[in-house]
N-acetylglucosamine transferase
Amino acid sequence: MGGKKAQALPPQSVADRALACLARGDAEQAESLLREHLRSYPVDAQGWHAMACVARAGGNSAAAIALAGKAVELAAEPFFYITLGLALLEQGHVEPARAAVNVAVMSTPADPRAHDAMARVMEAAGRLPDAERALQKALSLRPLEQERHMALAAFLARCGRGAEAVAVSARALALEGEAVLAHNLHAMVLERDGRMAQAEPHFAAVAHAMPDNPQALANHGAALFAQRKYEEAEQTLQRAAALAPNVAETRSNLGLVHMAQGRLHMAVQELEAAYRLRTHDARLALNYGSVLMDLGRTQAAQNMFAHAMEQARTVEDRARAALDLGGLYLATGRFAQGWALWEARRDLLAPPTGIAALPEWDGKATDKTVLLYAEQGLGDTLQFLRYVEQAVSRARICLMLPQSMQRFAACLLPRWNGRVQLVSPAQAGGANARCSLLSLPHRLGVAEPFAWQPDPACFGGAGAVRERKGLHVGLCWSGNPVYQFDRRRSLAPSLLAQLGGVDGVCFQALQPHDGLASLPLPLAPLPKGDLLATAQLVAGLDVVVSVDTMIVHLAGLLGKPTLLLDRFGGDWRWAAGSVVVPDSPGQAAAQGGAFARSLWYPSVRITRQPAFSEGVASWHQPLAVAAEWLAQMAQGGCPDQI
């Protein structure tokens, strides 16, 4: 008696089972099934094609070409040509890939997979319009398939067409709102288009659906950081780092979150770890160098910035490295080198709309008209206005400034003897060349800092506050909260209590604040107005106390006795651009030692944190110095002795 013989599975069933294993991520089982099957059925084209798919999934495109070629020899199925074409493309054989995929397109013009594959080939060939047409064709064949919308959105994002990419990915998401891949794509195209606030909820949806996926958590953490939700970002990135501790981007983002919260010792550990994981990455080297600079480790920071310049592979990365190294040189008094490196800004910041076509001015004397324009914040613009005086000796000048500065700058025109004209962007066409205000030290060859002060009387309003009794003190305690790393330079409002005990002082707020009544000392509110209105208010004060903001530049330009409360490792403008002056006779050494005096603004004194520390303790000493300084001034002390 004989038993029943087991029947072999049909070839099609084995190929399908193998591809199902592959789809589940079990490539080893898929390969095992196919090898055994093909020993018995060596003429099964489906099996050879499935084996080619396994090879491609494992990154072995060379083997995939041979395996798909074998399948095509046995049965010229159109989708075999798709696999063959994509494997050829992965090996860099663009034209053979196009020929293979074209067979599938011609044989099955209604198959969206063929058009999708052709789009990949056309993009690789640089034929972007053809690639877009292929994707649009695939989408028209399957308008309800989310995958087709996602492929087109990803292509548009890669082409820099962010707004279009967002619109298409939004349609993909609308087809199936719970699809994790669609949320992820939509978040990524929103991020690429600069809309991180809109991207964050979609990254959150992906992280919620995949709570143990380190990449999903890392993406969400980065989005939270960009939204300045630092505590949430820290928790999310820590979870991602625990799951995958050797991912450099995650460790770097975690370090940047620590930096934003003022935790430099924790930041340096994470940023160094990220850099050690990928020492050839210029961006990671720059992040590490930045925290070293903030910690006062100048030589180590310089080495890291120089290393980043060597490792940079893109224009943007090289420019950032040059800019950071230039800032370090400026902070350490090497001004000529610093200004030259600072010109790398031109590779990162486009000139204002409407003037990009103008040639750059080289700083040489000319009978033509040069447009000088503001590039960054109001503080930078105020600082670099001093160079206009040298510029007018070499050319006629048009000066283009933000609207909020127009009336202030108009007060300076008499000083420039009619050689400067204020213009709006619409009037910029009358110039023959352009130059950023921040480029003037380099273009004019004026390396060293120098003091410059217009007559404060030209701004008017000098007696506005003096009718009141007491020492009138302008106070600014925080910078722009939009700046990611503002927390280290700003004071918590509660710390102002250290200044509230000084007798004979009236405080004037020099920043807008909705809750002045809740502050620990009485402050008159800042009236609304432009820069000239603020200048007139400052001109009527006796002294100014401020953290590192535009207010210090304005008060210094007006010659107003000013005390800058500076963080340890602060901005280059207050580092080498200052000289140490002795304590006043009444200054207790325990209260902070010598002041520094700004070389840019002789009336500005600087007291800074003596060493890095975290939290409120870091400001105790500068605020104690400020309280004693104000007490001496209230008693009739001379600011020039302090």
Observations:
- The two ends are 114 Å apart (CA to CA).
- The first helix runs from residue 11 to 23.
- The first strand starts at residue 369 and ends at 373.
- The chain has four domains: 11-222, 223-348, 369-447, 459-641.
